[in-house]
Amino acid sequence: MSKELKKKRFQLVKGMRDILPDEQIFWFHIENVVKQVADKYGYHRISTALLESTELFKRSVGTTSDIVEKEMYSFEDKGGENVSLRPEFTAGIARAYIEHGMFNLPQPIKLYSFGPCFRYDKPQAGRLRQFHQFNFEVIGEADAICDAQIILLTYKIYQALNVPVVVQINSIGCPECRPEYETVLKDYLKKFRSKLSELSQKRLNKNSLRILDSKEEVDQAIIKDAPQQVDYLCERCKDHFIQVLEYLDELEIPYALNFKVVRGLDYYTRTTFEIWPEESDQGRMIELGGGGRYDGLMEQLGGRPTPAIGFAAGVERLINIMKEKNIKVAEPAKPDVYLAQLGAESRKRALSLFEEMYDVGIKVTEGLARSGLKAQLELANKLGVKYTLILGQKELIDGTIMIRDMEGGIQEVVDAKKVINEVQKRLEKAKVSINKNGNGPPSS
Ligand code: HAM
Hints:
Radius of gyration: 29 Å
Strand order of the largest sheet: 1-5-6-11-10-9-7-8
Shape: elongated
Bound molecules: histidyl-adenosine monophosphate
Structural class: alpha+beta
Distance between the termini: 62 Å
């Protein structure tokens, strides 16, 4: 290998991100909230494969969607099969539902997932090539109450995370009523063909509904007066939509009717919705999540006719907004005790003393690989521990250990056999005095 190659410093692949330890508190917190809400509403976790047949996404997300047209990480594997990294969860979950015969179980099946997805998108604010979603699906029930409850659940997650949001909601009808609307919409848009953005002009014949989703200013001016799907819904779709809205009113969930919420994936029917940050201005808005009904998908994938609804949210976008808004999440518990040692024999003893302390519930940290007391005490100080235990050669011979109170700097030598007990007593006392002064949480 050449010298230059040996020296090469590798960097992240474009659009990928490392999640460093400092940020992990957000991830634990969000995963916890998602799990709690999932438990509350009776969802079970499902982890589907990262790699699926490319055909699955073509048939579900749709060949005219941006995702399938240009954003999939697809390749031929060594066996010649065309496979893709999942760009989203719904298609894989629908595949798993059919493949594992979940239709034989009592319906609806409620599933949730949390994990990475991949889209070869142009990296920019809020857009990564590897990002994470949490995803909820209710499969096997057509009732409007499910639409309302999944929107409620979604809303509860953002509420629990202190992120104010508004639900943007629409109905895009069903295969019965959508074609008429599409014709009316196309006729309207054709009148402005030359004024539409280049992309919207291309979409006019392939997927005119998606033009409503355009963020281009030139398109916005035309879209604002476009005919709306809600005026062309068949009776059943209209009733369904009205019911969903009535449930949302009952639940007092803030929502806005928004005929532009048509979503970028082809499987949707009837209710579609997105979660927007409360104060977002429509032009620059980056949605936090989105979902909707997909009553035709199972059949499209070779399953029985099975109504379903789901939702997914981007975790990185959520964390960005939490950071922007300075929303605090609980820091992990700090250690109370630092275990310092000096000399080879003390180090050996400290190795097992650490285990003994941890096992009785003391929040302990150590510097077993360090030498030199000064450096260890400096680290203990930095960590903000209450006590440092010092185990040196002399203490080892005497069968003692020194306890240093880090606040006052007072050091006391105690019998090594009683040190755990001594530490526990002191920590208990410190807790009581904090509570008495009203500076800390009540002890439970
Ligand atoms: P989606 O709107 O394509 O829906 O994605 C959901 C969320 O994933 C977005 O709102 C966004 O927060 C996040 N997201 C998407 N692409 C990126 C990206 N390139 N970088 C960062 N975050 C991104 C779906 O995926 C549907 N499967 C949702 C669904 C579930 N519908 C029914 N069930």
